[in-house]
Amino acid sequence: MSDIRIAVKEPNGEHTEITAPTDMGLSLMEVLKANEYPIQATCGGMALCATCHVEVLEGPELKEPSDDEAYMLESLPTSTSRSRLSCQIKLTPEMEGLTVRIAAEDY
């Protein structure tokens, strides 16, 4: 099976489950945009703008952010210890059950 389920916590508190392929090399940002979430992705996924900021609420441990991603996250006034740039999260089968919330400034 190459598809995983990801939950998105909506502003009203409900969770919406989306299905994402893991065999295409997609990032979480690309899947969120394809599902019509308000991700701007101004820089096209290069970790330069932080308009794809999400909070990881539940799920498997993700690899540490790169230096570029960490720098961008540090510049955000709403960044938390669970903040990530969705453009930097490449989807793998191990991410089954990931739950994220799109950052408040974007939603």
TrEMBL record:
Cofactor(s) it depends on: [2Fe-2S] cluster
Keywords of the record: 2Fe-2S, Iron, Iron-sulfur, Metal-binding
Domain 2Fe-2S ferredoxin-type, chain residue ranges per copy: 2-106
Domain of life: Bacteria
One Pfam assignment: Fer2
Alphabetized InterPro entries for the sequence: 2Fe-2S_ferredoxin-like_sf (IPR036010), 2Fe-2S_ferredoxin-type (IPR001041), Adrenodoxin-like (IPR001055), Beta-grasp_dom_sf (IPR012675)
UniProt entry tagged with the keyword Iron: yes
Protein family per UniProt: Belongs to the adrenodoxin/putidaredoxin family.
Protein name according to UniProt: 2Fe-2S iron-sulfur cluster binding domain-containing protein
Protein species of origin: Adhaeribacter terrigena
